[in-house]
């Protein structure tokens, strides 16, 4: 069946040659916004992440939960790009597409005639997004890039984790593949910008997204502290390098998060915990002083906070309109009434009736809301449908392509 999207990108055709996470994450965003996304997979193998488990779905596909997080609102076709006839099918699909997304190694698609230069020659309005570890140029261009490596190389792990010398101190990666995910976000933003430019000029363009570039750009205040103030960023655990106090504290029955962003909040919080005179101490009168004397401040605050029950302190902070909370386990936040009220979790049915749960698109568009049309597909399940619908191939032609191993249907 054809897409019946009503979102802001309805009618935009995306050909997704990417796999794993950064590319699929970007194309899922476009699909959520209404674009028709065709995911191209290798016959007999499919996207690598289909086997990144456990856990796996207990159905015929045995697809992993990991794969399900980044592939809704897509149709899947399985085509052998290394076969000249398979590459020709992809060229024909690209000629009808608005956007191509790929994450092959630099130059990897040129030998199949599927690079930007080849495809844009017949489709000058094509927007072609390449996602790699290190970009299309520079001394590292030929290296493979993986999220864990990028987190370390970018400097992110040097500011993540407990401080050296503390129990458990040392570099630590973020608990989600943040470099992949944010590169996917930047790729989606860039493709939308290129679409807007094409509306004015009629011309597409090549977008070069690199995981390392993205992650370095996200160093944000930490990099600015160094570039503009000479401050050497370091690991501080749950503390903030600039704002104090902005960290976790131990109550009698567990930890609470205290995130105070200005002097007024600091004065109100210290009064709440029974230390109303603390802000009058010359060391703590402003944030700069609290930053210089953070250990002394923590030593003064910890005994007062330790007398509280965590739920009572969080409730008191909420009543005083002070930012605070608890560290949730993932099951707790997924069951939180705020998440339910925001409608962030969706149940979708796959073509065989298997239900899967997905986390939805987080922004609310008042006039063109996101819709959830398709569960993450089984590998190649839409091959015949797409080839017939988009390229006009007959059943006999498709059957021959299957027999020759050029295309395949569901694994």
TrEMBL record:
Keywords: Transferase. InterPro entries: CoA-transferase_III_domain (IPR050483), CoA-Trfase_fam_III (IPR003673), CoA-Trfase_III_dom3_sf (IPR044855), CoA-Trfase_III_dom_1_sf (IPR023606). One of its GO terms (molecular function) is CoA-transferase activity. This is Crotonobetainyl-CoA:carnitine CoA-transferase CaiB. It comes from Edaphosphingomonas laterariae. The lineage of its organism: Bacteria, Pseudomonadati, Pseudomonadota, Alphaproteobacteria, Sphingomonadales.
